[in-house]
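Annual report, structural modelling task.

Input specification for the molybdenum atom complex:
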Amino acid sequence: MERRDFFKKAVVTAGSVALGGSVLEAGETTHPVDDRQITSIAFPEKRPMIMYSDRPPLLESPREVFTSALTPNDLFFVRWHMPMIPSHINTSSFRVKIDGEVEKEMELSLKDLKTKFKQVELTAVLQCGGNSRSAFHPTASGIQWGAGAMGCAVWKGVRLKDVLAHAGVKEGAVWLGFNGKDRAVYSKTANFIREMRLEDLDDNVLLAYEMNGEDLPYLNGFPLRLIIPGTYSDSWIKMISNITVTKEQNKLFFMEKAYRIPDNECECETPDKLVEKTKPIEKINVNSIIGYPQRDSKVRANAHIVVRGVAFDEGSGIKKVRISIDNGATWHDALLDKGEANNFAFRAFRYTFNPTKTGKLTIMCKAISNRGEEQPLVKDIKWNHGGYRYNGIDEVTIEVV
Ligand SMILES: Nc1nc2c(c(=O)[nH]1)N[C@H]1C(S)=C(S)[C@@H](COP(=O)(O)O)O[C@H]1N2
Ligand SMILES: [Mo]
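The model returned the following structure:
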C-alpha cells in the first residue's frame, strides 16, 4: 500500500460505527473480561478487528491470536489518543529531532538511523495499561478493552542510548520527553507527550522501524516508534518526531493525570474515595490469557483438548502457568514452549486434557513469574479509577457435548 493513500483506502463510513459490536452492561457477561464482536470493516494493513472507535482508530486483537508467541502485524491492536494522525508520511523527508540539553541538536532521517547506528532486534510485549479494563466493577474510566489490548512482536531498530550519545547529553539533564506526529483537533487539548527519566534508559529501549520483519504498520507508528520493554506501552510513542532532553519534568496532562494508580500499599481506591497521591503505572505485572479454546465453543466429550495461551510479565520471565478445569479446586502445570530469546516476550503454553462429563466447563489459567508474582483471583482484584494493570486469573467457558 502506498502510504500517502492511507485514508483513501480506509473503507470507513463516517458515523457508521461508534462502538464495536455489542456493548455489555456490567453484570451481563458471564466472564470477568468481555470478548466483543469483530467488526466487518478493516483498516489498511489490518484484518477485521474489534473496533471501539474509527477516529482515532481503537482496535483490539481477537483472543485467538494469543495462541502463539508472536502477534501478527495485521491483527496487532491499535490505540491512538488524538484523531489527527497524518495520513501522509514522506519517508525521505521524515526526521526525528533531538533537542534540549544536548551538545548538538540534530534531525535524523530514517537512513541516518539505519546506517549510523548499530541495528538491534528485540522481542517484547506491548501492552496498554488499560488492557482488560472492562473487567473492573464498578466501571473504571477509559476504553472498555477486553483482553486484546496487547501483543508481542520482534522489534528492530537502534538503541535510544546510542542516538543520545551521538547528540551528547549535557551534564545535569534528568528527563526525556517524547512527542509523535499526531495532534488534537481542539487547540487546548493536551498534546500526547510522554516523559521518562534518563536513568531508566537501558540498552533495551529502542527507536524501532520494523515489526516482525516488516516496516511498522501505519497504525502502529510508522515510520518510527519508541520501544520500552517491560513497561506498559503508554510511553511507547508512535510516529515519533521529537525527543527533548530537559533538566526538569514538564507539567503535562498525560504525565500528571493519566496512567497513574494510587500510591498506597494496596494500590487501590474506591469510586467514592479516590486517593490523591498517585504514581505512574510503569512495569507490566504478571498476566496470562487463554487463546484457545474460544468461549462458548462446543467440544465432544473425551476429545483431546489442547488449551493454548500466552503468559508474560515485566521481564523476569514466566516460571509456571497453571491450569484448572474444576473452578480452581485443583491446578496443573501447563507445558511452556521453549520461548523467545528473552523474558520480555510472550511465553506460549499448552495444556492437554480429555473432558469426560458433558455440560459447561470452565478452563482457568494463572501465571507465576520468576520474581514470584502470581495472578490474583478475579475477586481479589483491587480497583483503581483508571482501570489499570488488570491481571485477574483468566477463564474461558466451553460446552462439552
Ligand atoms: N504518538 C502516539 N503514540 C502513542 C499513543 C498515542 O496516542 N500517540 N498512545 C500510546 C498508548 S497509550 C498505547 S497503549 C500504545 C499503543 O500502541 P499500538 O497502537 O501500536 O498498539 O501506543 C502509545 N503510543
Ligand atoms: Mo494505552
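Residues 160-167 form the longest helix (8 residues).
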